[in-house]
Every structure is written in C-alpha cells, then in structure tokens.
Design goal:
Radius of gyration: 20 Å
Largest sheet: none
Structural class: mainly alpha
GO molecular function: DNA binding; sigma factor activity
Strand content: under 5%
Keywords: Sigma factor, Transcription, Transcription regulation
Number of helices: 7
Number of domains: 2
InterPro entries: RNA_pol_sigma-70-like, RNA_pol_sigma-70_dom, RNA_pol_sigma70_r2, RNA_pol_sigma70_r4_t2, RNA_pol_sigma_r2, RNA_pol_sigma_r3/r4-like, WH-like_DNA-bd_sf
Family: Belongs to the sigma-70 factor family. ECF subfamily.
Protein name: Sigma-70 family RNA polymerase sigma factor
Helix content: over 70%
Order of helices and strands: HHHHHHH
Length: about 180
C-alpha cells in the first residue's frame, strides 16, 4: 500500500485547485475552531485536499463544503483513533517492568504496525471485523462467535474467511 498519488489529469487538477482556492481558508478556520489547535487544523485541512486529490473525484461538486466537511470529519476520527491507540499503547508500556520496556525505535515500529492493523480492520464490514476480533483477540470458536453475533456458524466461517483474505491481500500487496 503506497501513499503516492498518481499524476492527476488536467480537469481533475483544475477542480481541486478551484476547491482549494475557494474553500481552504474556510475549512482551516472551521477545523481550527473545532479543534482549538492551529497546527492540527492546518494538517487536517491539507490532508482533506490530499484525500480529495487521491479520490479522483472528477465532476464538480454541488455542495463542496459539505463534501470537504465529510472528508475532514473522517480524518478527524482517524486522528482521534490513532491518538487513542497511541495512548493505550503508551499506558501499557508504563505498566511494564523497566527491563521489558521497548526502545524508542521499537515503540515507533510497534505504533506504526498498530496503526496499519487499525486501518486494515477499519476496511472490514462491522460484523466481519467483530468476528475477526473475537477469534483473534478473545480466542472464541466459530460457534461461540455465532452465538455472540446472533448469526449462523457458517456465516461466521464466511466472515472469518473474508477477513483473512483481506489480511492476506493487504500483506502481500505491501511487499
């Protein structure tokens, strides 16, 4: 999985440039007011337009501010989840005996892996994700998961197969 953006075609680039010129200031001000932090607001405003650039949304938008707000809201949720994940991980490290605390480099690698796993799980449908987490984290059997989710064992098996296929595809797509 790469964060590189393919070269945009001219109409797409013109659309993005017009949106950026017309709405970046508004989006930044809205995010700054909501977040109370100029740096986070600037980052999220920029990331919103990068996301739009990657989306290849070619046609002009009827409600550009609503669309930009929707993208920014998703990015804010992602940012919040990443920070919560980092806080939980750092809290778990504090509970370790000093000799077991990972190095700063290891902590960064672990946090990066946790964020990739979180993004991977976020791509799954909610029931598939829940079944996968029950199986992987709680060690539940397909029958136990089926009971918890109120579905058949066969449905759980299909959901787990989908989750594992998704993991496999992403793992080998990354190289």
């Amino acid at each position: 999985m790469s964060d590189s953006v393919p070269a945009p075609d001219a109409p797409h680039l013109q659309t993005i440039q017009a949106l950026y010129s017309g709405h970046h200031g508004w989006l930044y001000a809205t995010l700054r007011k909501r977040l109370g932090n100029a740096m986070d607001a600037a980052d999220l405003a920029q990331d919103t337009f990068v996301r739009l650039l990657k989306s290849r949304q070619a046609s002009p938008l009827r409600e550009p501010r609503a669309y930009l707000s929707s993208i920014a809201r998703g990015l804010m949720i992602d940012q919040y989840r990443r920070r919560e994940l980092e806080r939980a991980y750092l809290a778990s490290i504090e509970a370790l005996p000093q000799q077991e605390v990972p190095s700063a480099e290891s902590r960064l690698l672990i946090l990066d892996a946790l964020e990739r796993i979180d993004r991977l799980l976020d791509q799954l449908k909610p029931r598939v994700r829940q079944a996968f987490l029950f199986a992987q984290l709680d060690g539940l059997t397909c029958t136990q998961i089926a009971e918890k989710l109120g579905v058949s064992r066969a449905t759980v098996e299909r959901d787990l197969a989908k989750a594992l296929q998704h993991c496999y595809r992403l793992r080998y797509a990354e190289g």
